[in-house]
Amino acid sequence: MEVLRAAVDAIRKEKPRKIVVLTGAGVSADSGIPTFRGAGGLWRNYRAEDLATPEAFARSPLLVWEWYEWRRSIVREAEPNAAHRAIASLAKALVVTQNVDGLHQRAGSQNVIELHGNLFRTRCVRDDSRRDAIHAFGDLPPHCECGALLRPDVVWFGETLPEGAFARASHAVSEADLLLVIGTSGVVFPAAGLVSLHDGLSIEINPQVSAISSACTFAIAAKAAEAAPAIIEAIHAGTDR
Ligand code: OAD
Predict the structure, then answer these.
(1) What amino acid positions are annotated as catalytic residues?
(2) Is 52 in the pocket of ligand 1 (CB under 6 A)?
(3) Domains in the chain, please, with CATH?
(4) What angle, 0 to 180 degrees and rounded to 10, lies between the N-to-C axes of helices 224-237 and 2-14?
(5) In sequence order, which residues have a C-beta less than 8 Å from that of residue 38 and are 6 or more positions away?
(6) Which is it for the CA torsion 59, 65, 70, 74, positive or negative?
(7) Quick check: CB of 26 below 6 Å from ligand 1?
(8) Ligand 1 pocket, 206 CB below 6 A?
(9) Which atom belonging to ligand 1 lies closest to the Cα atom of 25?
(10) Which residue numbers in the chain have pLDDT < 70?
(11) pLDDT tens digits, 82-129
(12) Its pTM surpasses 0.90
């Protein structure tokens, strides 16, 4: 593939060291986790306003939790794919993800900023205390020991990102020698805005044209699990790992 070869050549030439990987739902598509937009996307079959807003949760915590338990069960069964593993092999890279599935960490990435939270953590609606919640809940909606409702510790539409997460991500993106953008439609802000903060080599991997393809130096039209290992191998070849 012509673009992939050109991107590999650019990596060989520039030998990037400071690397940020920005990911979206598409990086987990090859693990069998549905994306949000496009064919088979969650927002094709469900309305975000009914399931992923604070208002929806206030209206029906049970409905929202049933949907999250279904998503949690899909992710629990899934395994990281070749793209997650290749990304994890970049031990010094920063991964900035919009995903809430935790698959980057399960693949071994240690330096991950989760812009939209994590499906396997809850938050008490009374005092905001967070805790890990890996297993399925027996009763829905789940409650905190204090009696208040628990909510998934994810960012819903209309909410702000976790404190400091965007600032840390922006700083790293603006300092990076290489930005890899994998599997995001680039339409949800502020995450999508990170691409415009980067100056220099940027490589997108996405089988479709996204809203940020034209902002990237190279846009490789391929699946993450197919193209990411080749791109990342080229990065390793230029450094001593
Ligand atoms: P989207 O569902 O909007 O976009 C997924 C992107 O992945 C699309 O551009 C697809 O073309 C691409 N894609 C599909 N299969 C792929 C594959 N095998 N390899 C690589 N790319 C592939 O997901 P996001 O951009 O992550 O927010 O969506 C951003 C945010 O919108 C999500 O974090 C979520 C959602 O509403 C919240 O819940 C706050």
Answers:
(1) 116
(2) yes
(3) 1-33+80-116+161-241 (3.40.50.1220), 34-77+118-154 (3.30.1600.10)
(4) 30
(5) 44, 185, 208
(6) positive
(7) yes
(8) yes
(9) 26
(10) 240-241
(11) 999 999 999 999 999 999 999 999 999 999 999 999 999 999 999 999
(12) yes
- Please tell me the distance between residue 10's alpha carbon and the centre of ligand 1 in angstroms: 26
Q: What is the pLDDT of residue 39?
A: 82
Residue with tokens 């069964």: 77
Give the number of other CB atoms < 10 A from CB of residue 129.
Answer: 13
pLDDT value at residue 241: 45
Write the residue with the smallest CA distance to atom 13 of ligand 1.
26
Geometric angle at alpha carbon 45, from 42 and 48, rounded to 5°: 65
Measured in Å, residue 148 CA sits from the centre of ligand 1 at 33
**Could you identify the atom of ligand 1 that is nearest to the CA of residue 157?**
39
Query: Are 24 and 99 within 8 A, CB to CB?
Result: yes
Q: Which of 36, 96, 153, 226 to mutate to test the pocket of ligand 1 (most atoms within 8 A of CB)?
A: 36
71 contacts 154 by C-beta, under 8 angstroms: no
DSSP secondary structure code for residue 124 in this structure: E
User: Would you say 135 and 160 are in contact if contact means Cβ atoms under 8 Å apart?
Assistant: no
pLDDT of residue 1: 77
Q: What is the pLDDT of residue 49?
A: 87
- Nearest atom, ligand 1, residue 41 CA: 2
- Closest by CA to 57, choosing from 135, 129, 123, 146, is 123
Residue 65, C-beta contacts closer than 8 angstroms, at least 6 positions apart: 137, 140, 141, 142, 152
**pLDDT at residue number 128:** 96
Task: Look up residue 96 and give its two tokens.
Answer: 């900035």
